[in-house]
Amino acid sequence: MAMAASSEFFKRSLSFLTSRINRVAVFSTAQPTLNTVGQWASRICGTTSPTVGAPASTSNGWVVKISSANALAVSASGKAGHIVLYASSRGRYVTRCTTRNIQGTDTVSIPAWRVRVANPTSS
User: Fold this and answer.
1) Which of 89, 76, 77 is nearest to 34 (CA)?
2) Is residue 66 in some structural domain?
3) With 90 as the cut, is the pLDDT of residue 69 above it?
4) CA distance linking residue 78 with residue 28, whole number of Å
């Protein structure tokens, strides 16, 4: 059975990130729970001014690009392991990052990256 999805499905699901994400944070190696209020205070570092691009099509799905964030001040020392996108106070998307020990005197830079929704496939 072949699977298909309209381009509206891809655009609308990724448009949520474009229109609602207003914070990005680095967290420890313990994965944060999505949709939980109050985790922002537990971040290693973060910014309240991320830039999330508009959805764009690719040869195998749709993507949004999250721009880099440079020289973020460290809020709490820890071992970085996750990056979380927030809509207000709720985590909406989490991904792993390179693990690294972060000290209070460090600054952190998050490189530009993409969230991709691949075209559906049947198995």
Assistant:
1) 89
2) yes
3) yes
4) 6
Domain assignment present for residue 123? The answer is no
Q: Cα–Cα distance between 21 and 93 in angstroms, integer?
A: 9
* pLDDT tens for each residue of 71-123: 999 999 999 999 999 998 889 999 999 999 999 999 999 999 999 988 776 65
Whether residue 56 is contained in a domain is answered as yes
In a domain? residue 1: no
CA-CA distance, 123 to 115, in Å (whole number)? 23
Give the strand pairing for 61-66 and 56-58. Answer: antiparallel
Domain that holds residue 31: 7-117
Count structural domains, the chain. Answer: 1
pTM exceeding 0.85: yes
